[in-house]
Write a structure and sequence with these properties.
By secondary structure, the chain is of the alpha+beta class. Strands 1, 2, 3, 4, 5, 6, 7 and 8 form an eight-stranded mixed sheet that branches. Helix 1 packs across helix 2. The longest helix is centred in the N-terminal third of the chain and has 16 residues.
Length: 197
């Protein structure tokens, strides 16, 4: 806990739309256009969030979503049943190409590590320690599950996030280059970073 926020597993349903907006804004460069941009993207994400795979930062009075960290396991992921939500809004060829594009971003699930499936902090909550507190909670979740570490990916343009991860002891283990697909997603490469817990 902190003066201005509480870290907790999951989220209350009355904050679902706020968390969907926070997550969408953080990753709009990667997922925005396949989800239809700001007109449909935040709603699709909000509907797809599974609180069982979320750690969240909420204002102490319970009225504001401040940050969310999702993770992926063999039992599920923060953003789940995305295809079903998209099918309700897009059809035919439109749905197929959108799903094909998003599938490029899928990552293999490590056997002995918790895969961080996105961390996002509300713009007005940055600098309050929300990101660090969420990472601490993710690492505790990995230990609770008796896993050896946490793995995440950070894109080349997100220097603020990479600096946070490095300060927290995450080490780069390799990069993947998108090549010509960088024009689709707005970034050239992603670095895989890991930390033993």
């Amino acid at each position: 806990m902190s003066e201005g926020f509480i870290i907790r597993p999951g989220f209350p349903d009355h904050l679902r739309e706020q968390f969907g907006q926070i997550y969408f804004e953080a990753f709009a460069g990667k997922i925005g256009w396949p989800l239809g941009g700001t007109s449909t993207g935040p709603g699709i994400i909000a509907e797809s969030l599974d609180p069982r795979f979320a750690l969240t930062a909420i204002s102490r009075d319970g009225t504001r979503a401040l940050g969310i960290a999702g993770y992926k396991t063999h039992g599920g992921a923060l953003v789940s049943r995305l295809e079903d939500r998209m099918r309700a809004r897009f059809g035919g060829f439109s749905l197929l190409w959108r799903l094909s594009v998003l599938s490029i971003l899928e990552r293999d699930l490590p056997e002995d590590q918790l895969l961080l499936d996105g961390i996002a902090v509300h713009a007005q909550a940055r600098g309050m320690g929300v990101g660090s507190a969420l990472l601490t909670a993710v690492e505790a979740e990995a230990r609770r599950r008796k896993l050896r570490g946490v793995r995440l990916d950070v894109i080349d343009g997100n220097t603020r996030a990479r600096a946070l991860y490095q300060r927290r002891g995450y080490l780069a283990e390799g990069t993947s280059d998108l090549g010509p697909l960088r024009h689709l997603f707005g970034f050239r490469r992603a670095t895989s970073m890991c930390k033993a817990v």
